[in-house]
Amino acid sequence: MSKLEDSPVRIKSFQFACDIVFFTRSLKRQNEYELASQLLKSGTSIGANVREAQRGVSTKDFKNKFGIALKEADETKYWLELIEATSENDCKVLIAKCEELIRIMVSIIKNS
């Protein structure tokens, strides 16, 4: 594995995307199609943008992609909080994982 492939943010964002895929499948079984769709888009976009950032052609490009990933993470946290507030689903673990990703990305952006 190269250094990029085993970076903690890349691993965590990929694992989080997998968690989101599994969770949205459960939401769809509960007929929560709209919320599942919104959550799936934003929750999987985090890792995609992290991966793009790590292939950035400049520091500006790197920070821009991480900025997009950070916005997607914040949106994902919103959807998770909304789902938890309006359903029987417990989203605390996913919210905590999302908050961890947010902290990591904020740190990366600040230190770039």
Automatic annotation (TrEMBL):
Database matches in InterPro entries: 23S_rRNA-intervening_sequence (IPR012657), 23S_rRNA_IVS_sf (IPR036583)
Domain of life: Bacteria
Spans traversing the lipid bilayer: none
One Pfam family per UniProt: 23S_rRNA_IVP
PANTHER family: FOUR HELIX BUNDLE PROTEIN (PTHR38471)
Name of the molecule in the record: Four helix bundle protein
Species of the source: Salinimicrobium oceani
